[in-house]
Structure formats: structure tokens, C-alpha cells
Amino acid sequence: MRDPVLYPFYADLSSLPGVGPKVRPVLARLIGGETWLDLLFHLPTSWIDRRNRASIEALQIGEVSTVTATVDQLQLSRGKWPTRVRLRDETGFLTLIYFHANNQWLERTFKVGEEVMVSGLVDDYQGGRQITHPDHVVSPEKDDELPEVEPVYPMTANLTAKALRKFMAAALDGIPDLDEWIDPHLMKRNNWPGFKQALLRLHQPKVYDPEAFETARQRLAYDEALAREMAMGQARLARERRFSRAIPRAVGAERNIIEALPFKPTRAQMDAYSDVAIDMGRPVPMRRMIQGDVGSGKTLVAALAAAQVAADGGITAFMSPTEVLARQQADAIGRFLAPIGVRVAALTGRDKGAAREAILNDVRAGKIQVLSGTQALYQSDVDLPELSLVVIDEQHRFGVADRMKLSAKGSSPHMLVMSATPIPRTMALAVHGDLDISVIREKPANRQEVTTAAVPDTRIDEVMAAVARAIDRGERAFWICPAVDSEDAGDASAIQRREVLAEIVQAPVALVHGRMPGPERDAALDKLRTGEAGVLVATTVIEVGVDVPEATIIVIEHAEKFGLAQLHQLRGRVGRGEKASSCLLLYQAPLTEAGKERLDTLRKTTDGFEIAEADFKLRGPGDLLGLRQSGLPTFRVLNITEDANLIETARTDAKSILMADPHLDGARGLAVRRARDLFAPRIASVVSESE
After folding, report:
1. Domains defined for the chain, CATH in brackets
2. Taking all residues of the chain, what is their mean pLDDT, rounded to a whole number?
3. Model-level pTM greater than 0.70?
4. How many angstroms separate the first and last alpha carbons of the chain?
């Protein structure tokens, strides 16, 4: 039940004066919600200093300024010439320019010999100061109509800034002061205002004070961080109270698998598996993420976990985002587990009729211990008896609902999620704070370094010739295009490029893109994998997980259009075998500074974590993972790039609060509940998945 003191925050927009049936939908679209709270969290992006300057001479070119002066001359518009209003004071003249203004309004507003107060952007025209279309013009007697500081909001058509400020003022008047939930020592150290005072300082500032605005924003950002950490902490406590099957470490099976490997696992792989093995040995549900760069060996860790489960008589469900990956993982895990006789099968949308039923029957009978698949795994007819472990590959491709549906096939199964998208620590805390995280930084010894070069697309003929020579030597190549057809990318389209390469390369050239049916995509990939094709032309559909050890070259056209993390993922398609590999970044000149920096970063390093940090700084968290991708929370105030210290502090604070008052029954606990509830719409998924 919602605390009654919070009811005003959740009042509908229509209860605000002036918000009728026509205005409400416009306002709701602008703020992304329908309540007063949504309106109050529509924060200004900047503030304009409209304090009255001492004189015209004091006005600075290029700044928004306010001044009181006398109307000296009014020249109304004639033909194509604008209206000119000349103001004067004892220090000089200021010209106001109006295009297509109403003459009656101009004559009524600017009476020669009378004073006016004007505010707007000051520019220079032929050595004199000028304001074109002032933002405000009032008489000095009505200076209260012109605030000293004016918030600037993201706006939309059919709604004026003046109306938005009026709605904001009504909402601020209607909400109560709330008991403080932040530790008083933290409040004092940071000079933070109260929650309502922070909103007032941002929406209705009395003076222009950039430092005070940032302090108020940080206060609200901390509230959001604390609310999220509290939700995740409570979810963790709830999970700790649930029973899950404790699965002992299968030392013998583990040893047999490792001894049969054609390579030696890295210390990082074994450390990650130890984390998993310890978690699964506890009678509470594991929630752990294995985060590792492209080719760091996460699949072996998952296979060892599946072996531990199989030795205890349980089943592992391994969910991947595509059929290609699901079948590829089934093959890889099957090879790892073959020495201990564990059977692995794939189940995807391609499996129909008798073949599908045979797989499901073998799972029910306990003949298949690991089932790798897509969302087909949680269909109603899929029975997974003794489901003990759920593994989610490329977890950011799935939503919370997908993970919950698959987990519901068992009784509180352990969950392991894997990500090949390196995430800076700050972002990992903000996005995956409900998970324990193991990081694999090392790469297996047999992994080849990939040489990366940036080449202007004016040399594309040379590049195609070089690819053709490599294919003649028995190598294989990927060629990545930014779009499927020529309408979107011209000659750089996948369809067009495949036709051109087919004329040059003395081997079949396969094509794969997102518009093709799944079986056709799989067939094209298989052609490259088996060597039937020498080149695979593709869009970014092959960005993640596709494993062709024989591929030694990847060419990426229009590389400047891709993000750093995506380029790194694409580059990870090569360097998986024993031969030296290369990545060619074809770009269109001239490059922007940001584009040049991205390509330079990729050339200088193959460390995905270093690349992720660079991408994080260049483009922010939204573009690193894509704000619309499943499972990634959005924030109202918190900026992951700027507020790293707030996230760390909130995490520590939340732990201490829950340790002292796990049920939040005390005075501070009740206040913290309100903070959690005020930010609940954005963090509900964290709680729902763990309850």
C-alpha cells in the first residue's frame, strides 16, 4: 500500500489548474508520464540569468541580459525591413529588432520617452549592441513578472514555457515536505537541501547560482541511487530467505573435463568458476554475472557449472538470443562435457514435430542434462524436471520477463548470466547491482591478437583485392556492411557488396542479414564455417558470438558510423584460431574528431574493458549499451557518467540501513520507504525478478 503522505505526488496531471483535455496529452508526452511526480522530475536543462544589469554599457555580447532603459526611437517595419526600437540610457544605446511583429502591440509597448525592461540575447551589429526578438519586455513597475533566473526545459509543440512553469508552480505548491531519509552527516558534508527544497531550487530558483543548482541536482541523484540500492538490497534479502537446491562441487567431473581440454584454462576462468561453484553450494538462489571480453572463455565456465549440476542429478537450461548462438553453444558445451558423458541438445524454433518431441522426451527422461535454446525453452510444453541452473547468454538481449519465465520452469533455480559487453565498474553497479559479478580479464593463451588498421574507403579496391588474395591462400573473411540494401547505404549495402565481391573472389560469397529467415541465416553462416564459402558479407547480425576459428579477416565498411563497443564486438569474430588475424576499418573522409578518436582507440588496444571505458567517456552510458535494450534501467536524475561517487556511497548507505532495520520499520526506515516508492516506476523490475 502506498503511504498516504505520497498521494499528492501521484495526482493526475488533469488536477492541475489549466490542464484540460487538450493540454493533458501534450504535457504527458513531454514529461513521459501522467502524474505530478513525473512533472516535477522533468528537470531544467539550464538556467538563464535575467538579473537587471546596471546599464546598457554593462551588457556583454553573446550573453542573455536584462536592462532597464528609455525608448528613444520606434521605426516600424516597412517592406522587407524589420522594426527597429532604439533604447537609451546615460551610457549608450541598445537596438531591438523585430521581424513581422504586430504594429499595434509595438506602439502600445514602446512609447517614446517611457522606460521598459527588456531581456534577451545580446549580439553585436556594426559595433552596436542589439537584441533580436527579446524574450521579455515589461514595464519597470511590473518587474515581478520577470524572474531573476529562468529555468529552461526540454519543450514540445503546442505548449509554452510560461504554461509549463505555471503547472510546475501549482504542483510544487501542492506537495508536502517529507521526513528526511538521508543520513544527516552526509547531508551536512555535501550541503544538500531537503527533497522538496531541491525541487524548488531547480524549478523556482530565487537567484542565479550554478553551484546551488548542481548541489540540488546531486541531492536528487543521490535519492535515486539510494532508492535503487534499497530496492536491490531488499530483493537480495528476500532471495536469501528463499530455499534453493545446494549443489556440491563435482571435483572429479571438473578434473576430467579440464584434463581433456586442448588448452589450459586461465586463472581468471578458474577463479570465476570457483565463485559460481561456491554460490551453487549454498541453499539460496545464486544470481551471478560472468563478465568477460570477446573470447575470454566464459562458455567453459558455464560448462563447468553445468557439469556440477549434472553430477548432482539436475538439469541446466542455457538460453541464447539467437538460434545460431544456441546451436553454437550446444556444440561447444557438448564438446567440453563429452569426457564425463553429459548429453547436450539444442532446442530452438526450428525444431518441429517429431524431432522436437523426441528432444523433450529425452529431457523428461533425464537423458539430456543440458538444453541450449532460445526463448523456445520457456514455451508451455517444455518440461524441465529438476531444473537447477539457468544460464543466460548475452543477458542484455533479454528482458526481466524472459528470465523469470525460464526460472519458473524450476523451483528457485540458480541463475548465471554472461555478458561479452565489458561495462565500466560504475555502470555495472548501477545496472547490475542486484547481481554478484565475476570478471574474466585474461584471454586464453591460444587467442591471437588482431591487427587493426583504419583505411579510407577511397582504397576499397585495394582492400577487396587483398581479401581475394587471402581467400586464395585458404583463409576466410567477414565483410560487414552498415545496411541491407542500397536505399540505405548505396554501394556499401550488404546486397550490393556481395555482388561486387562475387566478381572478385575466386570462391563462393555468402550473404546474411536480419531480414532473412532464421534457417537461411544459419545456412549462410554454416557455409563460412565449413569452408563452402570464402567470404561472408553481413550486417551487424553477426556482431555477437558467431565462432569461425578459420576466419582471419574482417572488413567493416563505414566504420565511423559504429560505436566503439560494437566495433570491438565485430572485431571479435576473428582471431579465434591459430593464424594471425586482421581487422580493416573502412571509413569515409573527413572524419569528425569523435569518429577519429573512436577509430584511434580501436587501433591502439584490443582490451574490451579499456575500450568500454573510452566509449563510456565519449558517448555516455546510453550509447554504450543502448537505452532501449532489454534490462537496462533508465534514470530520472542520476547520470552514471558524472555520479559514480554517489552510486558507491548509496550502495554503502543502503547496506547499513538494511543491516540496522531490515524491515524498514524505524523512523528512518519509513522515510527511506518513501524515497524508494517515489522512484519505484524505474526500479520495479529489480524487485520483481528477485521476489
Report:
1. 51-146 (2.40.50.140), 177-241+646-691 (no CATH), 251-440 (3.40.50.300), 450-625 (3.40.50.300)
2. 88
3. yes
4. 17
